Amino acid sequence: MTFSIIARCERTNMFGIAIATRPMAIGAKCPFLRPHIGGLLVQANGDPQLGPLGLRLLEMGYSAAKVLAELEQSDGPSNIDWRQIAVIDKDGNTAARTGSSNEDWKGHVAKKNLCALGNRLTSERTVGAMVAAFETSPDEALAERLVRALEAGRDAGGQVAGQHSAALLVYNRKSYAWVDLRADEHDEPIGELRRLYGLYVPLLTYYDTRPANPSMPRDDDWRRDRGIQGGPR
Q1: Residue 233 placed within a domain
Q2: Host domain of residue 57
Q3: What is the 3-state secondary structure (H, E, C) of 159-219?
């Protein structure tokens, strides 16, 4: 009962994931990314242990299709049909598998630099809307495109049981995330994710540069000095 998107930005080579589901704290269980190598989603009746394994294989230079094949073999025939997995490699190649034991509507669309997928959705329109929203905003930042895709999936029907958690994860050049935001339990988690992202965007430069410049002011002082509204409540 999850819908998600994993993608690569051709302009910046950033990798990102946006995901929403009914259970809480989806951001802690399903998305796995690393800069320069790509990542994967392991959802539905997923096993989070497959995530680090997939990342190690991507680090070794395996293609998306090869990583998926290795995960299928590792998980075994009695488990893999319960999973829904999508992989993207360093070149933007994608591979996905929707197990037959997932609940309808279930499925995925895997394309160059993009894979959208979901299970127990109200219809295939959820996945189609995510793909369309992502592809019609190529000039926007990757994180913005991913949030728009998640919003489009929700507005196209989302999933049968509704959504209560959502997450946005984007990696740029460094070993830590460029964006890592979560709405772990919320009546409208995608709307809350949009609100958090709107607050975070003005601070992207701050959080990217402060690790190498620890004498920079606190984030609230930095925000105030630049006339940036908002911030923690």
Answers
A1: no
A2: 2-225
A3: ECCCCCEEEEEEECCCCCCCEEEEECCCCCHHHHHHHHHHHHHHHHHHHHHHHHCCCCCCH
